Amino acid sequence: MSKHHTYPIHFSLNGCTIDVEVGATQTLLELLRDKQHQWDVKLGCGKGDCGSCTVLLNDEPRLSCLVLAIQVDGAAITTVRGLGDAEHLHPLQEAFIQYGAVQCGFCTPGMLMTAKALLDRCPHPTRVQIREALAGNLCRCTGYQAVVDAIEAASRRHPQHGQTDQNMMATEMVDTGEEET
Questions:
Q1: Residue 43 sits in the same domain as residue 67
Q2: Pairing with 82, which of 95, 111, 120, 126 sits 20 to 30 Å away (CA)?
Q3: Domain identity same for 105 and 51
Q4: What are the beta bridge partners of residue 55?
């Protein structure tokens, strides 16, 4: 008869304190989805290749399928639910909607969390820096152009107001790679 040992951990999830027992081999992804019902954290490949399970662990993007739950004891975890809600979207969420960077939506939470970490680290990244940051996030729907455009637009928010310049985003031309006529 095998004994399954569990270990108590304490962490913050989107600003809420969590105390839970976890198994030694349980991943953060399993903990978030199975015990905390965080369906916004997607189970994609389960082996660290697709980025759809990306969360912020102490403000750094991490693939939750590769992190053991026991490793987050004392940590702060942020999922896409922690960015904003339907009434108060984060500027990145607004930009993803406006620029059509959301297609089927499966990769969107991971892309948003990766983009948030990038903008926290580098508030005005170049398009090359945006593409480099997204290198670990796979998407089969958008072709990435709309995602890059959305992140670039969100980076233009006014720091003194904490809001995106809606007029700039609404009138900005999207670079399609085609010449203007």
A1: yes
A2: 126
A3: no
A4: 62
Give CA 143 to chain center in angstroms: 18
pTM for the model stands at 0.83
Q: How many domains does the chain have?
A: 2
Evaluate whether residue 174 is within a structural domain.
no
Dihedral over Cα of 108, 90, 135, 172: its sign? positive
Q: Which tokens sit at 155?
A: 């980076």
Amino acid making up residue 169 = M
Instruction: List pLDDT tens digits, range 129-154.
Output: 999 999 999 888 877 899 999 999 99
Residue 115 belongs to what domain range? 91-167
Neighbours of 68 (CB within 10 A): 15
Residue with tokens 């903990």: 31
The tokens for 42 are 């997607």
Residues 39 and 101 in one domain: no
Report the CATH number at residue 98.
1.10.150.120
- The tokens for 101 are 């960077």
Burial of 92 (0-12, 13-18, 19+ CB in 10 A): buried
Contact criterion met (CB below 8 Å) for 54 and 62: yes
